[in-house]
Amino acid sequence: MKVEQLLQQAKILLSKNKLNDAKIIFQNVINVEPTNYKAHNNIGAILLKLGNLDEAEENFRKAVELNPEFVIAYYNLGIIQAKLLKFNEAEISYKKAIELKEDYVEAYSNLGSVYLKLEKLLKAEENFEKAIKFNSSFAVGYYNLAVTQEKLKKFNEAEKSYKKAIELKENYTEAINNLHRMIRQNKLLLEIKNIRELKKTKVSVTKISRGLTNNPFVSKRKVEKELITEIYKINSVEIDNTKDIRFGNGRFSDYELFENNSSILKTVEKDLKKIISHEIKSDIFIIDSFFNILRTGSGLASHHHINNFDREHNLANQKYSLTYYLTIGDQNCSEPGILKLYNPNEEILPSEGTIVIFPANRLHSAAYGGKSDRIMIGVNFYSLI
Predict the structure, then answer these.
(1) Residue 117: closest CA among 155, 91, 156
(2) What is the pLDDT of residues 305-352, one digit of tens each?
């Protein structure tokens, strides 16, 4: 069979997603024509999809060896090398692809991502800017540029880039969440800066933060039926589809629940702030507010709520977490949703309306196996004094 016929046969198999069969045909092409660099590239692409990265790398290397001007093979080689954490080699491959094709948008973008991994932020920024220069509608390029600018503390530029990404790609969840998080974090830092300036100028600060040391605080609030109804109305996503550490069955909102204009949620926010301030004895700043609708087989891995932002700004000891249990679900099961706190070990079996506040750096977990929904509102906040 002629090479042209084999290639056509392989193309048909690829269109039917018969990857292994197509791979065999491309190998037959190489057997007939050992210098066919496109066949090596296609085998590499198939192996990439199948997860055989080492062998894929070998085929892409063979493709560029046979044809040193074959742009796509250098690009594919860069993808494989980045996946194999060979970032320095990936850098070389992407640069070669760009050398051969000056306006290679995806290669600039991927090279920028490699520089992000290598913490070479200025080079990352430069390559993302080149990507959007050659394609001003490249939403991912603006998003990656924004991430880099945020790391460089160029917050005004990052805000503009996030907004451009969102403009170009409707419902760009990662960009929307990052933009809102960055804005909240910057507001928090401004609040803290203002309070520190007050202390420097010796202006009287009447509130003294007591904090919770390492102990949880438990309170109660009546749960309105209207609140439950409102929660079910709000858009949420499957817990498994979030990048959060949560796992199992259920639904999860974004981290801006209290930005909702619902009157009942505004009442809840006001009441929770009052309860928090009474216990913490300071002004507070809410950084996250969300809800979970947990279902049979859901749970939480052992975790805390401290992140790199908290560590970078030395805020870990000022951060707290709150859980407000709206419904407790079915507690007559082997996993009734006990809140487990570690170091020291404590267990709290909540009832409807229970509010638990604890330091955000304290490890905790829970697991729920009941048949009816278990609904919680979560809040992460900082003491400002």
Answers:
(1) 91
(2) 999 999 999 999 999 999 999 999 998 888 899 999 998 999 999 999
Nearest alpha carbon to residue 152 among 185, 119, 117: 119
Q: Identity (one letter) of the amino acid at 35?
A: T
pLDDT at 204 over 70: no
Provide the 3-class DSSP secondary structure of residue 341: strand
Residue with tokens 């009816």: 372
Measured in degrees and rounded to the nearest 5, phi and psi for residue 259 equal -80, -15
Which helix H or strand E contains 6, and what residues bound it?
Answer: helix 3-15
Q: At what angle do helices 105-117 and 87-100 cross, to 10 degrees?
A: 160
Query: Domains along the chain?
Result: 3-176 (1.25.40.10), 217-383 (2.60.120.620)
DSSP β-ladder status, 374-383 and 319-327: antiparallel
Q: Phi, psi (5° rounding) for residue 178?
A: -65, -40
Q: What is the amino acid identity at position 94?
A: Y
Question: How many Cβ atoms sit within 10 Å of the Cβ of residue 94?
Answer: 29
Burial class of residue 44 (count of CB atoms within 10 Å of its CB; 0-12, 13-18, 19+) = buried
Angle at 289 between CA 285 and CA 291, to 5 degrees: 160
Query: How many CB atoms sit inside 10 A of residue 154's CB?
Result: 17
Which residue's structure tokens are 């039926």?
225
The per-residue pLDDT for range 267-313, each reduced to its tens digit, is 999 999 999 988 888 889 999 999 999 888 777 678 899 999 999 99
With 0-12 / 13-18 / 19 or more C-beta atoms within 10 angstroms meaning exposed / middle / buried, residue 176 is middle
What dihedral do alpha carbons 256, 261, 263, 268 form, nearest 10°?
Answer: 10
Q: What is the pTM of this model?
A: 0.74
Tell me what percent of the chain is helix, strand and coil, each rounded to the nearest 5.
Answer: 55, 15, 30
Outline where DSSP puts E strands in 261-373.
284-294, 298-303, 319-327, 339-341, 346-348, 354-359, 364-368
